[in-house]
Structures are given as C-alpha cells and as structure tokens.
C-alpha cells in the first residue's frame, strides 16, 4: 500500500519538476504521446502543465505535507490492523480456554463417576469376602444404583435360621433396669442436654412417669408413690436448689458403687494416657478403660452401663467427657468428703481434709520455716566471719612477704582503693618463691573460725606447669591467686572488699592448724584452695506444699481461684444465681468471704484445705444442693412405700 502511494507521489512530484525552454518543452509531450510503450497508456498520461507562481513558491511545503499525511495514514491503518489482529487473537484464546475448561469439567465428572463406581464395586467385594470368611449368608438385597452400592434392608431374601440371644436384665420392684434408665435419659436429653433441669419441670416429669406411664419407664413399686412422696424424694436427692442435675438421678439408680479417692486417681491417670489436654476421649478408648465397678458386674450389663454413660457424657457425638463423669461420681457420706474427692480429682493428688492432720502439718511448716530462717542467719554470720579471717590472712601474708628477705618482691598488690576502682576483678597477688626455709607462723595472731576446713596448703609440683586443675596459675618464680570467673563478685561497699563465697565444701568439725601455713623453698610453691559456705537445700513456700504423711502424699494449701474453679465445674448453674442467701450475696462473694475468714497471712494469704472443708457456714450452704452426698434412690423409695403401708 505504501509503495503504490509513493508511485503516485513521485509522478505528481514530476509535474512540478523543471522543464527545458523553447521547442523542447513542446517536443516533450509529443515524444511522450508518440511513445508506444505500455500500449494504450498514452491516453492516461498526465499532461504537463505550468503551475502558477504561488504553487511554485510553496512547492516544498506541499510535498512535505503530502509525505507526512501519507505516513500518518499508513501508521493509522497499520495500528487498526494490529488492533484487529489482537482482538482476534484474544477472542480465539477465550474460545479455546472455554473449550478447555468445559472438557476439563467433563473429565472431572467422568473421573468422579468412575471412582464412585470403582469404590462401590470394592465395597461389594469386601462385603462378599467378609461374608465368605465368616460363613454368613447375606439376607439383605445388594443393590447397584448408578454409581452407588448399598444393601437394602427392606428386602430380606430369606429368614434367619437362628435368632440372636437377647440379654434380659433381672427385674426388681424398686431398681431401674439399664433399658429403663436409657429411656429416661432420652427424655431428659431432649429437654436439657446440658444436664441441668429446673426443679419444677423435673418434678412434673417424674410425677407423670409414676402416674400414667404406658411404657413403664420406672420400676413397678414406683407407681405406688403418691405425689407428696415424689416431692420428698426429689428434695432428699437434690436438696432445695432450683436447678436439678438430672444426670445424677441416673447415677443414683445405676446401682454401682461410688469410687474412693484412690479409685478416682487411678481412673484419672488411666484416662490421661489417652488425653492430657482436652478432657475428652473417643468411644473406643472409653470402652477399653477398666472402671472401678467392673469387678462384680456381668459383661452384658457392664457393656450396657458403659453405653449409657457414653450417651450421658458424650460431646459432639463422638467424644466422651471423662472429666465431667468423674466429677459427678465425686460423692461421700457428707459434703466435706464429697468436695474433698472433687478437689482430689482436680489436683491429681489427695487433699488433707482432717483437721488434726492439717493443723499438725501447719505447725510443722511454721517450725521448718523458723528453723530455715535461723539456719540462714547463722550461716550468713559464719560467712562474714570466714571472710574477715581470710582478709586478715591475706594481709598478714603481704606484710610477712615484704619484711622477710631481699629475695621477696611484691610485683603487684591490689589494695582496697584499687579494688573499689575495679569491682569486676578479685585481688591478684603474685609472690616470688622464698629461699628461706624457716617455718615461722604467718597467722599466729589470728583466730581461725570454726567453719573453715582448709585455708592454705602446700605441695611440691612441676615448676614448669602453667596452670593446675582449679584455675590457679603457677610458675617457677611466682604464685598467682586467680579465682574462677564465676566466683568474681562485686564488694558491698568501699570498706568491704572481701569476695563472696558460694560453694559448700567446709566441714564445721575440722579446722586447719596455724602451723600449716609455712613459707616454701625455691623448689616448692603455694597452692590456694577454694573456700565456700555450705548451702541450705531447704525450700519452703506457701504454695502447693506436699509432704510425706503416713507414707501418703497430700496437698494442704489452696487459693481462692482454684476453689472457685472447682466449684464452677461441679455446680456451674449454682454460679448463675444472683442471690444465694439472706445477705443477698452471689456465690463468688460468698466463697471470697469464706476464703478471707480461713486464709493465713503466714502462708501467702492461702487457705489450708482442711479449714475450708471444716467451715460450718460453707458446708451448710453447699448442703443445699446435696451435690456431694451419696444417695440411693431405690432404698429411699422402698422406705416410703413400706411406711405408707
């Protein structure tokens, strides 16, 4: 396109070219007209004409504008063509990607269908293999429908030849069977899955069961109870609190023994092997557990009891809350014993509930603490005596080394002022070996404390040994006292520059004679051994004090947050009640008040557990719920029935 446009441009430009004068201008068109090249092209030839003067003056501008316009139009056309090409390519890519996605979706659907059919065939093969290996005939109709496989139980191909044996529980006039308890549990689970039901609602439901129950969800003799006895029964089982833990009604009628503290701890340890964080285990793990009541139960009844307990305390359908179950079994002959079991289960260790034992332990702890403080003061006083003695020995050594003979040279001495300036270092004293072998006493004027075993000792060693095993640098000319880096300490003040002693290697019954400190010959060297004060391994604290008592471990102290946490887990609805007594206190305020009465300042403001468990006001208040008391519902009903006769 550009080439054709340029040809026209060149031809047009030739019209404005210079022409020859005279006849040549006249002969030129004739020559062109007379030319036979191109056949009939003569007629289409542009005739030469003479442009006017204005055109001649603007000749260059005209053709420059022409060439610019030509190039601009060419660029515009080229751009449009490229845009069309780009749009075409994009459209083709969209079509291709759409087709690819469609084919990919089709492929995935085909693959899913294929895998579903393969899985159905595999399930059918597994079912047939299991039936063949077990020697069991399959009664249900096996159906392949689409990509699904199932056994249709509505169509039985043949009847069973041998019926399975069904375990029948021994019935009693006063005791619930496991099947009856299961029916009762279903009713209460639908109404209150949390385990707490209003007292009035629970009373009405139990009255309906004992009056007009067509399914016989209660034992036979329970139908003989009048309405008044039902109210008394509920009050005796659960107290006067407005909320009833209906799960404990099932436990009271389950006729299994309530565990002791040791049995609770054993169960807790066994459950912790499966879970240590959440308090939940799987159903299989729970069935594997051996509980405290399994000894005298039949296997069939035991399995039914475990299934019922799993239904009562399951979470999210598949998990079993063993913590909640064990807390509900924490009951005793009185409220203090039951609450003590709950604390034992929560802490994982027995708690002291006996007042006499707890008071003896408190007295022993106070005596131990007093002994510890007295021993600490004595050791501190002994340490300062040792430091003072060592300081005197060092000063005496320095004085003697100056005045003994001419061969004694003090190379370097760090006095008290120097040590104040350099608190990060211990004094380093270098003394050249002495030629005089006299055994004059260096420490004759000093009195040695009883706590020092050894201060200085002498021995013959290799004069070329640079450093011994204790970090004391020794050479043939001098003895340098260089303590270990971890023994460097800062002095207390400018007047006290003694190093702090930390290690325990002193014997109070042994002392070093004064004559053992001697000046050695040039073939001998001095060795300074480490000194320290014995450390006490007594650790006393007011928190979680656990000691051996009658060969058993107990916990004696508790803080208010731990007490509230246990109560909130055992009786959660009790904390939701705003006012619980005549003083219009809530449970938090009441527990805090009891705690303030029982806490001991000498033990970090913590309470002894036996003080809490023997507080009459606290026990009377908790007795309202009867939560921690052992009850036998069948025995109570039997007493009511016999009394009515």
TrEMBL record:
Residues 17-43, 486-513 are annotated as: Disordered. InterPro entries: SPEF2_C, Sperm_flagellar-bone_growth. It holds the Pfam family SPEF2_C. Residues 489-501 have a biased composition (Basic and acidic residues). Residues 176-352 form the SPEF2 C-terminal domain. This is SPEF2 C-terminal domain-containing protein.
């Amino acid at each position: 396109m550009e080439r054709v446009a340029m040809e026209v441009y060149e031809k047009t430009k030739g019209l404005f070219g210079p022409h020859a004068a005279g006849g040549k201008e006249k002969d030129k068109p004739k020559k062109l007209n007379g030319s036979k090249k191109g056949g009939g092209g003569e007629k289409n030839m542009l005739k030469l004409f003479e442009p006017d003067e204005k055109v001649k003056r603007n000749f260059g501008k005209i053709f420059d504008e022409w060439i610019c316009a030509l190039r601009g139009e060419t660029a515009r056309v080229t751009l449009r063509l490229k845009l069309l090409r780009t749009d075409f390519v994009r459209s083709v890519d969209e079509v291709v990607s759409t087709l690819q996605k469609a084919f990919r979706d089709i492929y995935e659907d085909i693959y899913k269908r294929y895998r579903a059919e393969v899985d159905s065939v595999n399930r059918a093969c597994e079912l047939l293999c299991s039936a063949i290996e077990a020697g069991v005939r399959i009664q249900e109709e096996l159906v392949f429908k689409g990509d699904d496989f199932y056994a249709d139980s509505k169509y039985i191909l043949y009847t069973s030849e041998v019926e399975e044996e069904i375990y029948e529980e021994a019935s009693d006039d006063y005791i619930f069977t496991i099947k009856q308890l299961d029916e009762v549990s279903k009713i209460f689970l639908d109404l209150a899955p949390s385990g707490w039901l209003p007292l009035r609602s629970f009373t009405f439901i139990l009255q309906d069961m004992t009056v007009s129950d067509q399914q016989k969800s209660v034992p036979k003799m329970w139908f003989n109870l009048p309405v008044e006895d039902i109210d008394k029964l509920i009050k005796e089982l659960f107290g006067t609190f407005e909320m009833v833990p209906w799960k404990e009604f099932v436990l009271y009628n389950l006729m299994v023994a309530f565990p002791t503290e040791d049995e609770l701890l054993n169960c807790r340890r066994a459950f912790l092997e499966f879970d240590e964080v959440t308090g939940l285990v799987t159903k299989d793990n729970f069935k594997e557990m051996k509980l405290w009541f399994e000894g005298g139960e039949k296997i069939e009844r035991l399995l039914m009891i475990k299934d019922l307990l799993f239904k009562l305390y399951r979470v999210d359908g598949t998990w079993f809350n063993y913590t909640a179950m064990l807390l509900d079994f924490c009951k005793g002959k009185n409220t203090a014993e039951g609450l003590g079991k709950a604390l034992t289960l929560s802490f994982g260790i027995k708690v002291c509930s006996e007042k006499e034992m707890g008071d003896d332990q408190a007295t022993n702890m106070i005596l131990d603490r007093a002994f510890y403080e007295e021993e600490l003061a004595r050791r501190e006083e002994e340490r300062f005596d040792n430091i003072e003695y060592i300081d005197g020995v060092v000063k005496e050594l320095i004085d003697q080394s100056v005045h003994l003979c001419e061969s004694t040279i003090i190379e370097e001495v760090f006095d008290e002022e120097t040590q104040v300036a350099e608190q990060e270092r211990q004094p380093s004293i270098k003394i050249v070996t002495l030629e005089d072998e006299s055994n004059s006493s260096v420490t004759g004027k000093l009195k040695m404390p009883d706590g020092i075993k050894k201060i200085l000792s002498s021995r013959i060693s290799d004069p070329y040994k640079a450093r011994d095993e204790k970090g004391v640098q020794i050479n043939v000319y001098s003895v340098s006292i260089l303590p270990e880096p971890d023994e460097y300490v800062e002095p207390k003040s400018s007047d006290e520059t003694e190093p702090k002693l930390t290690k325990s290697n002193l014997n109070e019954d042994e002392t070093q004679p004064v004559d053992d400190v001697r000046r050695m010959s040039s073939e001998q060297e001095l060795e300074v051994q480490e000194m320290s004060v014995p450390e006490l391994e007594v650790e006393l604290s007011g928190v979680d004090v656990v000691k051996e008592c009658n060969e058993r471990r107990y916990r004696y102290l508790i803080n208010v947050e731990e007490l509230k946490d246990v109560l909130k887990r055992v009786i959660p609805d009790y904390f939701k009640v705003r006012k619980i007594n005549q003083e219009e206190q809530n449970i938090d305020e009441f527990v805090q008040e009891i705690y303030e009465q029982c806490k001991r300042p000498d033990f970090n403001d913590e309470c002894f557990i036996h003080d809490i468990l023997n507080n009459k006001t606290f026990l009377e208040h908790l007795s309202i719920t009867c939560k921690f008391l052992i009850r036998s519902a069948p025995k109570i009903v039997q007493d009511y029935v016999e009394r009515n006769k």
